[in-house]
Amino acid sequence: MTTGETDLTELAAHDTSSRGFAVSTRQAWIVVAGIAVIVVQAIVYFLLIRHQVEAFADLMGRASNFQSLKSTGNIYSDFSIEAFTYPPGGILLLSPLVLIPSSLLAPLWTFGVLGALTASLYIGLRYLTRLSITNALTLAVGGTLIAPIALSSVFDNIFWGQIGTMLTLAIVADFLVMRAPGQGVWVGLATALKVYPGIFIVIWLIRRQYRPALTALATVAVTTAVATAFYYRSAATFFHQQIVGSQELTHFATYSTAEASSSIADVFLRPPYFLGHLTPRESLAVAAVFVVIGVIASYGAWSRGREFTAVIVGLIISTICSPIAWNHYFSFIPLLLLLPLEIGWRSWTARVAYLSVAINMVPWPHWKLVGVVQVLLDHFHLYLAYVAQNATMVSMLLVLLTAAVEFWPPSLRPRAILGRGRREPTQSDRADASLAN
């Protein structure tokens, strides 16, 4: 190799490394800028919310629960609407809250809520498209800026200091990003914290994806066991009173809860029905029917290579089929906007998903009129309250049922089921039939 060739080679190598460094530096600046935008957004919402009545009530309630735990040794000692409603695994997973100064808890949590939503949108965009890191992150940050303004469910997640966007991130990351041997850990932690994400373990089992399912189950078991070892009195109370004694269901059986909840079961606990119209077991039976439909729809979408759609269906059934579904449970709604990227605009599921997003852009909680004596309302406000109380649930149910029709597995269609007992005629049968004729 001549000296000139050597110089050219070194120059090309230097130029290539410089370009690579420049690209990575640009990506790093975009990430820093995105984080800065979310930080500013979190500060703005914190300043807007902090002086409002019941601002960050759930978050501060959790912090006070741990103060009660210190004094009584039982975090469930005062079980009420604002008390600790998580299983023992939640005690362990939320215990780091005591390490955060109370003055920083709300702003940091607000940043976590918005950051989790940004991460979920980013993962969805990267999974479904060929967008670069910078473009996907830019769109994700833009979506996060708009979501709390357009959707009351996302705003409520911030206002109350809830965990909805974080649970969504754990599930989306576990299904779309994680691979063996770690796949299943995040769903397991989410299930140990909130129980309802356990439906995704069922989805893995139906698919015969046993490794992530067993990993998730092991994570739930280990988390619960460690929590029980550290907080034995609390764990004993939870298992004996909340699970065996069904207090986990019955303590929510109030008119104000039924009027505010978007669970399928709560439809039958408010007018034109009445509180107690269904027993807790009957409510679970109603929810179980839609769980089965949803799991089949999720399986059908996955079997057609539509993993993102399968996850969305799972999020819907884990929410509307739970015993109670507050408005902030639906903070995953922004992800519905990404469905056409996977199944196309011609898909009825994608079209209904956009309709559902449009329905939920209406601030329905404002008209639910929770706690108002409805006999005092005129007909217009009575009907408006009824529509508001059911709008979110119906919109989600429409997406679920449309997906079930569109992605129902061929093997479970009536014609396929009825034809299973029929044997295809063999060559010998045809020969015998021709001789008989």
Number of discrete helical segments: 20
User: What structural category do the secondary elements indicate?
Assistant: mainly alpha
The chain-level mean pLDDT equals 85
Number of domains: 2
| Topology order in helix (H) and strand (E) letters | HHHHHHHHHHHHHHHHHHHH
In whole angstroms, the N-to-C terminal distance is 88 Å
Q: Can you summarize the main beta sheet?
A: none
Percent of residues in helices comes to 55-70%
Tell me the fraction of residues in β-strands, as a range. under 5%
Gross geometry: globular
What brief labels describe this structure?
437 residues; 20 helices; 0% strand; mainly alpha
Provide structural commentary.
With 437 residues, this protein is an all-alpha fold. Helix content is 68%, strand content 0%. It contains 20 helices and no strands. Helix 7 runs antiparallel to helix 8 (185-194), helix 9 (199-207) packs antiparallel against helix 10 (210-230) and helix 9 crosses helix 14. The relative contact order is 0.09. The model is unreliable at 1-22 (pLDDT under 50).
